Structures are given as structure tokens and as C-alpha cells.
Amino acid sequence: MLLTISTTHQPATDLGYLLHKNPARLQSFTLNFGQAHVFYPEASAERCTAALLLDINTVDLVRSKDSSISMDQYVNDRPYVASSFMSVALADVFGTALNGRCKQRPELVTTAIPLEAKIAAIPSRGGEEWLRKLFEPLGYQVEIIQHSLDEEHPEWGASPYFTLTLKANCRLSELLTHLYVLIPVLDNAKHYWIGNDEVEKLLKRGSGWLQGHPERRNIAYNYLRHKHNLTRDALERLVAEEVLAEEESAATIEADGVDVTASGSTVEVEPITAEAAQAAEKRTSLHEQRLLAALDILKQSGARRVLDLGCGEGRLLKKLLQEKSFEHILGLDVSYKALELAQKRLHMERMAPRQRERITLLHGALTYRDKRLEGYDAAAVIEVIEHLDPARLSAFERVLFEFAHPDTVVITTPNAEYNVKYETLEAGKFRHQDHRFEWTRTQFQDWARPLAERSGYQVDFSPIGTEDAEVGAPSQMAVFARSSATIESEV
After folding, report:
1. Which of 146, 220, 356, 405 is most buried, with most CB under 10 Å away?
2. pLDDT band at 147 (very low <50, low <70, confident <90, very high)
3. Rounded distance, CA 142 to CA 135, Å?
4. What's this model's pTM, rounded to 2 decimal places?
């Protein structure tokens, strides 16, 4: 199993500093599945190549009682093709470079240099097309050579193994990160246990590029060994980070005469008239209208303890903190990055102790029961439910209405009927690429009314945004309130 990384950056031997491996000597490392050797076939000022060679002891792997891999034969492709073993070796042997650290040449860590990575043999059941779909969106020039099953028997046809060469001007840490994630995606025999830790690894190493990759669903599914629950969790958290990245880039973007407004959990396209363009500075954004509408309901409810579920980067949390009537506020989100941004937006590091005691930020999902959500008077769920798989809605309903069971719940979601007003939105398309559904007003009410009835709530509906006579407003809000009779019966 061989990987080589080359550069023509001048002086090329700086590659040794970036990899923390001296080009002048061979270095060997003991791994739990064999040996890893690092050497330099060439090392001059003009061109330098580092090689990572893995010597896998498949006999020990099969015989090991602790091994999680199942091999029916002693003869297999494990010693030869790039697989999850290579990914582990990258982290163990080139871990400092993978994490983007270099004390001797710190400026090189953030410098894009000409790099070429060559994997001698890598499996791809999806053929050349799948390899290109994985690497070309990341900016690599991809060269592929497919190997035959047996050169002496060409009639046997082609094998699923390829020599893959990637070329790009990029940071070394980027190249190593892409290889670390995508090599196991191409292999169907990941050799270690797949659990929640692997989701964390995927999100950590995929930060900044995976959420925007067109094949992110297949990447997550293959990386996590086709485990649907883990894949769903990873994708939900990736979506949250993608939305945050869009919001950070701009609150409002002008493009092709259309106003694209970043709005919490979605990006929506609002049509612009001449009058609207003239009043642009005075206009309150659609998402701001949602937040103000939810805030007004929460204040009217008399709630003292409030949940913001799917809190994102803390836009609603900031407004809640400004209201002294709310004694404690809890924000929950599936994205660590979202919560980090919320901390910055709220300036939590500089909060007075009494103010800091009023707010809690938690990492978690809306589809799993969490006892920390119980005991609150009201909850806001702003532009979140459309990001859940329809099959997961019932889990969300139980988490919020059965287990947390606040007296008041405010939920907003896009109105699908209004989509015809967006000239740049193709017919049948959702407002955001990760929306799992978008409901009409009737569909929203048909979902909310039975839910309210069986959960002991009354529900009312309101439009949010400028209302059109035919298709309604761009967003819709449902306010669930437990009746006084229900509350008294429980007491």
C-alpha cells in the first residue's frame, strides 16, 4: 500500500518540514496492523517526493482476538490497496501535518503550494466516474489509470482497482484531510468499529469543505459504513454548519436583480420591485420578522423559562436575553460550530455573572429525548422542522410535545405556496437544498391540528411576511398553547 506526495515548491525539501519527517533518512513506525515506513525517493531543491509505505500483517489481523475485522481468507487485497488502514496511518504518522502545524516553517502551513499525490492502488466500485465525483469538486486535476484483473489474461476484463493521481495548488493539510476522509469512502471494508466517534471525526475533518460537496450524502453514508442513523446525524449537523457559513458570508446578497436573504435555517429568495428596492434600507428582513413574531408570542405567554430549539448562531437568543422577564434561556443545536458562533454573538465570555447564569447552550438533536429540556414554560422552533426527514417528525413531536411539554410552543416554517413568487426558483425546487419538505398552508395545518389535539394543546396559525391574496405569506407560524383546563388537570 503506497502513497507518494510530491512538490515543486522552491525549495522543494521544505516538504520535509511540513511532514515533520527528515528527507535524509528512513523512518519506520509500528501500528496495530503492521508497519509504516516513510522515505523520500527524491529530495532536491527542484522536486521532493515523500512516500508512505504500509506493510500490513494480514495473518496477525485474522488471528487477533481483538480485531474487529472479519477476513475469510489469508489472501486478500488488504496489503496492496489504499483503505481505512491508510487513513489511520495518515493520522498517526503525519498527524502534525494533518492538523496544520509546523514550528519550523509556520508560514508554509497556510500557503498553497503545488502538490501531487499518487496512490498506487485504490478500489472504486463506482469506477472512474466515482473517483472524479469525489475529488474534482475539491479543485484537483485528476488522472486515473485502471488496472486489469490479470495482465496475462486480458479477456478477464478490468479490475475495480485504479492508480489515482491528484494535482492542485493547495495547503498540505487540505490534501491530507481530503485523503483521510475520502480513502475510506472508496473502501467497503473499514477495519474498525463505526460509532458516534466516527461521526465526530467526519465532522471535524470535513469542516469547511464537506458541507458544500455535491456528494456529501454518499460520502457520509460510505464513510460511516452504511449506518443510516449515524449518517442522518452527520448530515443534519453538516446542514446546520452550511447554513451558518452562508449567513456569515452575508445577511443580504444582491444577485441578478434578486434579493437573497440568509434566514436562520434556510436561504430564501425574495422578489424585488422598484418600490421595494427604494425602501431596501428600511425593510425588515423576513427572518427578522419571524424572530420578532416569535418573541412577541413568548412575551405574551408569560413564560419565565424558554427553549430555543435549533438556535443556530443565536439571533433569537440575543433578543431573549434583552427581555428581563425571561429568567432562564436554553439554546440547543446539532452543530458545535453554530454554538461557538452563538457564544461569540452573545459575547458570553464578557457577560456579567448574573447575566451568564440566565443562559445555557447545549449540543443535541431534536429527535432524541433529552431530560435537560424538561421544565421550561415555552419553546421556539424557528425554520427548523423542514430540515428533518419526514420519517423523523414523529420523534421530534414526542421530544417536544410529550417529554419537554412546555405550555407554549412557537413553530415557523416556509409556505410552499409562496415559492411561485420567487422568479429564480425553479418549479418543484425547495428554497434550500437541504430542505426535506416544504408545506403548503393546508399541509402545515393538517400536521399541527392533530398533533395539538393528541398532545393537549390548542393551536392558532398566523402568516409571517407580506401576504399575497392568492398564495399567502412567505412564512407561516403555528402557536401551540396548553389550555388552562389541561394544566389544572395535570396539577
Report:
1. 220
2. confident
3. 7
4. 0.53
